[in-house]
Amino acid sequence: MKIGVGLPNQTRDIAPRLIPQWARSAEEAGFSTLASVGRLAFPGVMDTVSLAVAAGVTSRIGLISTILIAPVWPPVLLAKELAGIDGVSGGRLTLGVGLGGSPDDFVVEGIGRQGAGDRLDHDLEIYRRVWRGDPVGGGVNPAVPAGTREIPVLFGGAVTATFRRVALSGDGYIGASMPTMMVEPMFTRVKSAWRDAGRPGSPRLVALAYYAITDPEKGRSNILDFSSAAGQDQAQALAAGVRPGRDAVRAAVREFEDIGTDELIFIPALDNLEELTQLAECVL
Question: Which CATH class is domain 2-283?
């Protein structure tokens, strides 16, 4: 099982200059992947910006959005932006997408929460046409340079439509930052849908785990703050799931490996580099 780490881009009022420092340190430590967290209506750093910065200051580590709330974006604009990030990184980006759960993230006029699932299915086809180099805007020019590749796509979510998307048009699945007893059934459903669709091989299975080593209580408070728009029950469940300290982090590795996870990504609940250093000492 690979071990990745998130960028702290959605910690309230993060100092943006920390993002490149964190990315370089994560690559030097030997993590498999750098992940972003996505929300618009929160005082953090945009996930696409964070990934672009990480792409520019690293050369080996994988990049993934966990998750990018795709339906809040006009599709051609997002597809072009992602293609640029992937190109700058040398083809290291994986797109992790979901529908989002908070109405306040839908800030573009005319693009609301209603119908987000159908819009995502439609937009995915547009992304791929853009990445293939089809003309955009009613003209003759493509939006991306020649040689742009089709970016791998993973889906997050816990409804039947999510598993259908993975099976029909995805490369894998991203589980929520929940205990393994809640994630394992989602993995089982993904694998079942994959087989039923006649897909060869296996879907890529990625799990997320919040962690806080140096100050677990502050970490829980940060996750409660970030997740509050999802509702009190959901926010409290996510905050309670923060892995507090080195022993809990090591236990998470064992637990997720036992359920067949391909890659476990630890998402920081605190935005200090000591968290990254101590995580590396625990799991790498």
Answer: alpha beta
